[in-house]
Structure formats: structure tokens, C-alpha cells
Amino acid sequence: MNRSLIISSVLHALLIFITAMSLPFLAKKPLDIPPIVSVELIQIAEKTNIPFAPKAKKIIEKVKEKEKKLVSEQAPPKKVKKTKTKTVLAPDQNNKKIENETPEAIPLPDKTLKKVETKEEKKQNPEKVDDEVKQVSEFEKKDLFDPNNIAALIDKSKEESAEVLKTNDDITQDQERNVENTGLTLSEEDALKAQIFGCWSIPLGLPYNENLLVRIKLKLKPDGTVSKTEILDHARMNKPGQGFYKVLAESALRAVKLCQPLRVPTTGYERWKELQLNFDAREMLEG
Amino acid sequence: MRLNKILKNTLLVLTACLVLSACATKKEVATDIQGQMQGDVYTGTDTVEYLADGVPDRVFFATNESILTTASRETLRAQAAWLRKNPSINVVLEGHADERGTREYNLALGERRANAAKDYLMTYGISSDRITVLSYGKERPVDSGSNPLAWSKNRRSVTVKAN
Amino acid sequence: MTKKILILLFILIPIKANALIEVDITRGNLNPLPLAVSPLSIDEESRKGFEKILKKENIGSEISNIVENNLRTSGLFNPLDKKAFLQAPDIANLKPRFEDWNLIKAQALITGKVNYVDDKLRVEFRLWDVLAAKEMMALAFTTVPNNWRRVGHIISDKVYERLTGEKGYFDTRIIYVSEEGPKTQRIKKLAIMDQDGANNKFLTLGNELVLTPRFNPASQMVTYLSYFKNMPRVYLLDIETGTQEVVGDFPGMTFAPRFSPDGKKIIMSFAKDGKSDIYTMDLENRIVEKITNHPSIDTSPSYSPDGKYITFNSDRSGYQQIYVMKNDGSDVKRISFGNGLYGTPVWSPRGDLIAFTKLHKGKFYIGVMRTDGSGERLLTENYYQEAPSWSPNGRVLIFYRETKTNSKGEGFSAKLWSIDLTGYNERQIKTPTDASDPSWSSLLSN
After folding, report:
1. For the structural domain made of C173-440, what CATH number should be given?
2. CB contacts, 8 Å: A80 with chain C
3. In this structure, how many other beta carbons lie within 10 angstroms of the beta carbon of residue C386?
4. CA distance C125 to C142
5. Sequence spans of domains, chain A
6. CA distance C215 to C237
7. CATH number belonging to domain C33-164
8. Bridge partners of residue C321, in order along the sequence
9. Does the beta-carbon distance from B2 to A24 stay under 8 Å?
10. Could you tell me where in chain C the CATH 3.40.50.10070 domains are found?
11. Where are the CATH 2.120.10.30 domain residues in chain C?
12. Which residue from C21, C165, C430 is facing A183, i.e. has the nearest CB?
């Protein structure tokens, strides 16, 4: 005990000595570095900038907090039904079926697993006969990504834009991207963006490692209502394995409809009577 | 001026050392008061039962470890002597883990602990035919507490008479 | 002159192309999609018919309640309050007045009808896009009345798939271990229930300890660990017939079983002489193969969905960490390098992620990482939680959580919880008893 105490104090003393001799460098004044201030450069036109919606992560966090608070209320989403307490008693009822040489097991008494038959729907609704038969037969097949299926589903969205397609054939899908911002000022664009951000419910089930860009061309009336919409990469909706693209395109169309009338500038209708919206979900889903 | 600086530093370092050593002693005192754990291995006798007079039935382990401590070896030597005296008795070594690990890993860990005990008994001349190893993982704690002391009691290998 | 025109044209064409204004929309809201689940309409005769068989006053609203509950718990949808609905169910199913549904801010609408036909339950339903004012889908089922809950789940799956672009997970079941009694002497039974907690049934009586049941992704088989006769071994159980058998003939404890993605093999650990290695057994020809050979503990194996790789945890580095290897045991690579211990890796059915349990500084986390170990994300933190199991679409994880006991060792409980990949939709799954070791089945209706 004593010896270790001595050794310890000697070592400590040594340590103190060494440290004391080598410490003076600390006395040097540190370099005086001014604090770094990050500056965001934003071009301002006519009106002030409307703040962007916060980044996806922040939204998630916020929602998370909200959800957390709500957990106690939301946690029991299922109402406890009387049937439940009945099933608890199941083992007693099944006591007879005890094992011999293998561990005990109660076979499920009822065959709940009987296949649910899917049958073709016969039209009930005289008004929309064609529609219905088409829709139903689609789902007879198991695979949603069957190209035939999708073709059928897409028919309708095509109808909607068929007219526009004709008139705008001259504007190809490959047009150069260096054309942005020729028409709207930054604050005009911000106002429109902010409005659509609020309307667009991004389908969370989308694969996040795919190209998730949907380009929609709009024809607008002077009051900001939409007279026509056209999905530019329409062909992609028909491709097998791209079922998610249709879901995304539909969500974008919903956003446009929900936002009507769009917050367009009060002047210069000629500039923006045609507008292309590029919906890209990747940033949100990756966040 | 320079001397002054050195003196100042010495003082600083000395105080730091004092503060630190104060911490260290306090900790020691704390475990002394509890007196039931060394490191995080249980050394008390609360849960211990006896196979015979002076033959404790269990040994304890540190977190995630299956190494036998000096005390454990002593216990196992007593068990080996008792088994030699009673050649008709066979034993089951039940290995256990605390609740702070995943279930499947703990099953393997319990088996490893019981095997550590088995190997030691074998080096003292007990035939492996007389020993069965059974792991319970974290399924059968002796102390239902959620604190370091309870966990230390649960990290164990218990020798149980099989016949 | 013509030259001039040509030049003019050349100048004009690009200008014309440039005239279209583009606006990039890179953000949206992640709020659940508001939709309306109109109760399925039912005529008086059918209603009475079902009331007699199923003891449910109105089977139409019961089914729509299931749909509504499923969609809400997914966290992706916000079913609106039925009190605000302006249109009667039967009329809405014929032709919704979209303005009315638009008024209550519904973006989608589900309507339908229930009939009692030849002692069978016939259900048709439709999904409408309210903003586009058109039908998105229509489907009809005929089944035995007792299957009414499953009809609700199948409708939920179809709607989920149509609106999110990925398969649903509602027509599924969960097998788990039911727990009762004091912590030191827990009685454990195998139990099975629907994904929403309904139809709970016990599969064993609790005479012996049972642990870690797992569904076969391809059939109604289950593999689990039983302490039958105090010999912990991996068993195979057919939940429809109740027959079961020991897997393999091992001279010691086998544990941590799991099926291969095609359901034809069981992969598990075998513990002997203080080390645990990973083995597979082919269920058709009963051939046993040793996959790892290392003095450490190798356990909790899980196949990749293509069956080519296996992830497992091992303490070969000194501490429990996650590794990936080829399915023959070659090319072992450690993938977890964060602070703390990592265990129970489970490969996502989508193949892109591995879910795991992490222990760090006295806290347990459920998290996911990419299959090369990058991109670690911790979804939830708690005193104790482990053993995640994926929903068949790879979006939701179910796991169990245990509470800390007080100074007297009281207050212990174990419950099932689920969380989706975003990490914010966390819910408890109600079970009649305490519960642990959940395993999610594949979609039953495939």
C-alpha cells in the first residue's frame, strides 16, 4: 500500500513537472480569427421574397415532434372489441389438444385462409358502362405493372391532354434547360412556388433512388385558373416497372388542381399564359 | 515573468490532479459501501445457493464476458471436489445473461459462460459425460431489477444437480 | 428576301422555345393525404342476413372502419371525419358529387357496396380522384362472410398501392411471443394475429419456453425456438395443421432461426463448446451445411431477398457487430462501424436496407443502414427495444420494447411497436398480453 502510494506520488510529481514545463505554449495569444458569417445572396425584385418552405428534414422533424405529442392519444388506434377478450380464452377451449412427443401446439381451428375470390364486376351503373368494365378487368390481373394495365389506366389522363398535345407539338421535350427565369421575376416565381409547395402531397411510397421528375405544361387563364394540363413525359407512364411514375404524375396534377387559381403575376399575361412546372420529389424523399 | 508563468501552471495542474483524485476516491468508496460488486462482477451472496456445505452453486461474470474471475475459479474448484466425492451426481450448467443485450446473442453468450465453467470443471478431473450445458440467455433472471447490481446478479452460470 | 426570312426564322425558333416559363417544384408537404372513406352501402335485406351470421349490426360500416383504420395507421393518409360527409353512401357509390367532397378537402374518395348473395359476402368498391373528378379503380370480391375483415384489408392494400405506388401490407399477419407472469418466471406462448391486432390466437399452451418465431415468406409455416424437454432446439410448425418437427439433429442448442426468401431453407445458429456458428438446412432433402466457422459467436442470420447474401452479427472483433457474407460463407465483411454494439440485422424485402438493433451508452436504438453499412439512420431510441421485422413492402418495421423496472423490480412490461422508415410514425400494436419477438408475414392475398 505504502509503496504504491510513493510510486504514485513520484509519478504524479514527474507528470506535473513535465506539464508545467511544456505548458507555457498555451500562454501564446491565439490568432484572432473573425467569426465566419455566412451570407446568402438573393436577388430581389419588385416585391420581397416569400420564404421557402423549410427543408424536408426539418418538416419531418417538426411532424415528428407533433406526432410524439400525439402518440399518447393516437397510440391506441384500434378499439378493443369484445371479440378480443373472447379469443384470449382460446387456449382453455383447446386444452384437449395437448401434445404427445412434440411440443404443444394448438392448430388454428378455423380456416380463415380460404382464398378470397376476386370476381369480375358487372356494370351496375348505366351511366358509365365503358369506363367501369375497363377498370375492373384491369385488376383481374395480379400485376399492376403489366404494361397493358397501365396503358388502360392512362387512357384517361391522355384524353385530358390530347388536345394540348396537338397544338404544342413544336415544343419538344428536349428543349434546353437554360431558358429558366426568362419570364417571371424571382419574387413572382417564389410566390407561385410557395403556393404549390403547400398543395403538393408527395406520395411517400416512391422509390427514392429513381428519377422522380414530372414535367407538366399548363395553359392558364388571366385569373390564374388552369384551362389545360399536359404531362410531358407521357410515354414513361406506359413503361413497365414505372408504376410509381404514374402515382407521382397524378399527385402533381392534384397539386395543380388544388392550388387553383394559381398565384400568377397581375400583369403580363402573354408571358405566363403557358407555364411549365417541373415537379421533382427526389430532394424531399432523400432528405 | 517566465517563472511566474511556470508557477501558475504548476498550481493549475496540481488543482486539476486533486480534483481528479477526489473523483477517483469517491467512486471507490461507493463500491465499498455497496460491497457487492467488483468492477461489474457480482461478489455478494444474496442469490447464491449451496450444493453442499461450502460449495456455492454459481459463478458471476462481467458484462459481455465469459472469463472466470479468481473467485469463480475458487467456487468451481469446490464444486469439482464435491463432484469427485459424489461420483453418482451429474450436473447441468445453466448459463445466463443480463437483460441488456439482444435475445439471440444472449442465448449464445449464456452457452459460452456455462461452457467456461464446464471447461474449468473438466480440468479438475470431472468427466464431460457428467456435465450438460443449458443456456437460458436472458430468459430467467434472478433479480427483476433494471440496475447494474441486478444485472450483475443475472450474469451467471449456475450448477444444478441433474439427478 | 428569302434569305432574310430564313435568318429571321432561325432567330425566331429558339426564341419561341425560350418563351415557355419553367418553374421547378422541388418541395411539397409530407402531410398525410386527406381522403374520405364513405361507409359501404348495404340494403336492408343483406344487412339482416349478415347480422344473423356475423353478429355485426352493419357490416358495411365495419368494413369501411377497417379500411379507415389501416390507412390512418400507415401515416400516409388522413381519413376525414364521417360526420362531415354530405353524400349518402349508396348515392356516392353510383356517382359522387365531387364538389361536395372537394368542399371537405378530400383528395380521394372510397365508396362501395355490400351484398348478401347465396350465403356469400359480395363487396364492390371504387376509388375516386376527387380533384380530377374521375374513377381510379373499381373492384369486386365474393367470399365467405367470415372473411369480412380480410376484405377490408385487401381494399386497403389496393387503395394504398394505387395512391402510393408500392404494395400495401394490410392483408398480413403477425406471429409473436405472448408473455405473462413475473419477470423471473415468464410464461411464453406463440401467438398469431392480424396485422391490426384482431383475431388473436395462441398456438402453444405455455408449458415450455418458446422464443423468436419467424414466418416463412412463401407459406404458412413458422420456425421458432422451443425449450421442449429442456433442450432448446429450432422447430418447424405448420400453423394450419398444428404439426411440428425438430429442425436437424444437432448435439446442442440451435437457435435464431429464419427462412430463406424462397422458404426452402432454414438458416440458424448452433452453439457448441462456447462458440456459435451459422448453419442452413434444406427443408426438402434435409441436408445441413455449415456456413461460418469461427471461434466467436455468429448469430441472428438473415438472407438478402435474392438469397445471394447473408447478414449476421458476430463478436469476432471483440464486440457484437454486423457482417455481410456470400451465401456460402465466403467473403465476410464487417459493415457496422459506428459507436456501440450492433445486432439483429434483418435484410429489407426491397433489398436496399438492413434494419438493426444498436446499443450505445445504455440506450437501445432501432435503425437502418444500406447494405454496405453506409447511411446509418436511427429511427427510435428507448430503454430497451430490439428485433425489428420488416413489413412485406419494406416500409414499416415492427419490434418489441421492454420497460425499465422500478427500484423494487416492479413495472416490467413488453409491448409490440411499429415505426415506418421516416421515423416519425411510431405506434403501439395492442396485444391481449405482453408481447415480444414479432415477425411479419407476407401478403396473404398474393
Report:
1. 2.120.10.30
2. 430
3. 26
4. 12
5. 129-169+183-286
6. 10
7. 3.40.50.10070
8. C314
9. yes
10. 33-164
11. 173-440
12. C21
In DSSP terms, C439 is beta-bridged to C175
Q: How is residue C288 written as a grid cell? A: 445441413
What the block records as the C-alpha cell of A229 is: 394540363
- Give the separation between CA C412 and CA C403, rounded to whole angstroms: 5
Interface test with A, best of B2, B4, B9 (most A CBs within 10 A): B9
Return all residues near B88 (Cβ < 8 A) that are at least 6 apart. Answer: B163
Residue owning grid cell 428534414 = A57
A23 touches chain B (CB under 8 A): yes
d(CA A271, CA A184): 8
CB contact under 8 A, A189 and C210: no
Q: How many whole angstroms separate alpha carbon C192 and alpha carbon A108?
A: 10
Cell of A193: 412556388
Q: Which of residues 363 through 402 in chain C touch A, CB cutoff 8 A?
A: 393, 395
Q: What is the CATH number of domain A129-169+183-286?
A: 3.30.1150.10
- Phi then psi dihedrals of residue B17, to 5 deg: -60, -45
CA of A230 vs chain C CAs: smallest distance (Å): 13
Instruction: List per-residue pLDDT tens for chain C, 446 residues long.
Output: 555 555 544 444 444 445 688 889 988 888 889 999 999 999 999 999 899 888 888 999 999 999 999 999 998 999 999 999 999 988 888 889 999 999 999 999 999 999 998 889 999 999 999 998 999 999 998 999 999 999 999 999 999 999 988 899 999 999 999 999 999 999 999 999 999 999 999 999 999 999 999 999 998 899 999 999 999 999 999 988 989 999 988 999 999 999 999 999 999 999 999 999 999 999 999 999 999 999 999 999 999 999 999 999 999 999 999 999 999 999 999 999 999 999 999 999 999 999 999 999 999 999 999 999 999 999 999 999 999 999 999 999 999 999 999 888 899 999 999 999 888 889 999 999 999 999 999 999 85
C271 to B108: CB separation less than 8 angstroms, yes or no = yes
Cell of C319: 464486440
Question: How far apart (Å, rounded) are the C-alpha atoms in residues A25 and C145?
Answer: 85
What is residue A81's three-state secondary structure?
coil
- Round to whole Å and give the CA distance between C427 and A164: 47
Instruction: Name the E strands within C63-205.
Output: 77-79, 108-117, 120-129, 134-143, 173-180, 187-194, 201-202
Q: Cell numbers at residue B77, please?
A: 474448484
ipTM value for the complex: 0.91
